[in-house]
Amino acid sequence: MRLKSTFGRAAVIASALAFLFGSTTAANASPGRECATPSIDRLQQWLASGEGATEPATGSILVPKGRHDYTAKIKFLADDWHVMVLWLGNKFEAQADLSRSDGFLMTYRATDDLYVQLRPASDWSGGAKWVTKIPSTRGRLVTKFFSFKPEKWTTLPELGAPAYPLSEALDDARGLVFVGKTPNNLEFQGLKIDGYRPPCVY
Fold first, then answer.
1. In contact, 33 and 42? CB cutoff 8 Å
2. Fewer C-beta neighbours within 10 Å, C or N terminus of the chain?
3. Over 80: is that where the pLDDT of 46 sits?
4. What is the separation of C-alpha 40 from the centre of its chain, rounded to a whole number of angstroms?
5. What is the mean pLDDT of the chain?
6. Contact, 130 vs 166, CB < 8 A?
7. CA 54, CA 2: separation in Å to the nearest integer?
8. 101 CB contacts (<8 Å, ≥6 apart)?
């Protein structure tokens, strides 16, 4: 669709800038409105799954950052698949409808490439999922937007292809699952999902 006026073009640009700088619905997940228990942008369950050699091996990877904030840190230690889980609804049984979301804005550092899987509640288990690449930052802290457009997501032959389209995974998203097959030092300081405000449940 072609914008026919300067006003229309300006409105689109303003909308894009509002999301990037945290002025949309996702801005409700600002540090000033965190949960009563440790969280990052109201996301409370950042978990080492016990799959692959990681440090820590299991449990929460949230650690204090300053007096009131938290960061999530995990190390992938081997040349084998590692799995780190983020529950979007802050409990395993919850799910989020992301069908109208444009994507998520993540502040992170990584010493090697990895992938994130979008895992739906209807097909949680197994490795055959839609993935998008999370590029290495060479250890630098960066903020990057990851789109939910279908052309931005793919499959990994080694893990298999899902039997459903990405749109179905967005309808009942249970978690983002970070996977990688190489040693990696990872830290997450922010993750805001366009149009979605996680509920505090702990």
1. yes
2. N
3. yes
4. 11
5. 87
6. yes
7. 49
8. 148, 170, 193, 194, 195, 196
Q: What angle (nearest 5°) sits at the alpha carbon of residue 121, between those of residues 117 and 84?
A: 40
User: For residue 181, what are its two tokens?
Assistant: 């097959």
DSSP 194: T
Q: How many CB atoms lie within 10 A of CB 5?
A: 8
Sign of dihedral through CA atoms 81, 190, 60, 117? negative
Measured distance CA(128)–CA(140) in Å, rounded? 30
Residue 126 burial (CB < 10 Å; 0-12/13-18/19+)? exposed
160 — alpha (psi -120 to 50), left (phi > 0) or beta? Answer: left
Residue 170 clears pLDDT 80, i.e. is over it: yes
**pLDDT score of 67:** 81
Asked if 82 contacts 53 with a C-beta cutoff of 8 angstroms, the reply is yes
Q: What pLDDT band is residue 68 in, cutting at 50, 70 and 90?
A: confident
Phi and psi angles of residue 158, each rounded to the nearest 5 degrees, phi first: -65, -25
Instruction: Tell me if 82 sits within 8 A of 118, measured CB to CB.
Output: no
Cα separation, 78 vs 158, whole angstroms? 17
Q: How confident is the model at residue 202, as a pLDDT?
A: 77
Pairing mode, strands 130-134 and 62-65: unpaired
